[in-house]
Specification:
This protein has six helices and 23 strands. The protein has 435 residues and is an alpha+beta fold.
Amino acid sequence: MAANAKTLVITAAGVIILGAGGYVGAQAMVGNEVEKSLNQHFAQLDNSLSWYVSDINIDKSLFTTTVTATVGMEGVDNANAQVNLLVDHGILKSPITGTIHPNEQFLRGEIDVDLVATRSDVTGQLTASSLSGAELDGTLHDLVLDLDLENQDIWRVDGQAREIVFNNEGDSVRIVSPRFENQSLQESRLIQQHLEIPSVEILAQGVSVYLKSVELEAESEAVGDSQVLNSGGHFSIADIGADGTSIGSLSFDMSANNWDMPAFQAFQEAYAPLTEMRLAQEEGGVQGDEQQERLLLTQAIESGYDFLIASPTIAFQPLKAHVVLPMLDVDFKPRLTADIRFDGEDLSKEALYSAWWDNRLALPEQLDRPNAMSQEEAQTYLANRLSLDASVTTPPPLILSLIPMPFSLLIDPEQKEQQVSWQEGRLTINGEQVM
């Protein structure tokens, strides 16, 4: 073989070896980035208000990474799923395939994963032909979730299903073609949501009810660096009817500000098992675990305190309806505005314990002293921190006649709107103090 030919062969072999080495090196780098990205996303999900992640196992080889983890909803029993993923180490794009198996005590079915990841985004779909409830007789058909994560900061989810059907002893609810959109901006901690349902069909006690063009828009954003949220939204139903006859429509705008969501969620998580325990005691007539009951009640009061010191507010701006009852000659357009506020500044925690503590249980430290607030004093103290301003359209005579005594006596039929106010423990209706 001539010298030039030998040189060419050796050079070509060297290029192949270097290229193969570079490819293998690139694969190793991609594997490292995949592992890093997976850990970041699991941590981000685990730090959210509504989700948790556990039992993470990442097995990285040269060309692929396999992942298993348990992902669940906070505060909901058995609402978790086993996630199984396979990531192929592409130089520019990495396909991600796998399955999500819900806990069968919560949901039955399987969700298929088909995604593509790059250095800056993740896109693709989650699909399921059928998901059915374990305790509730309900089934979701043909679910498609389009996912898009952009620059590690913007999450977009666009989900739709053919229908969702619930059945219960002859009654049923059918939700036709629901579509849900969610966009989350991590840096600004802004969440925007949109739900559209063309039609809902309800059969209850032999009466067929329909809802047309149901729509919900909501937006929430964190206040500064805290977990306190300001939220707002719009809800509307274009047409409501029964047995084929339209009876009206409904819409309202709502805002909820200064809501400490972790505290509110903790309150729910403590109060739900507390309620279950007390219900079981009443139905079974058996004494429960007093230590556990005291613990749950204490947790509920502590988280309730954390929620209230943020001075939460909620407002309807306004709630509008159009009620049409041809058989009764009623064509009524009621309108309600309401603003409810709680003053949490310098709130006494002792007052919460006094107002909410169950006297059947041994007293906590906060109340086990001579000068502790009485329950009545504490309830008055809290009531004085609650404020309400509301106005509602005066109903027509027929509806007024259906309002029971003594409430009907408080309504002034000559006014277009009825004004209700609760300030510093005083209730007034149309300017007249009631209590």
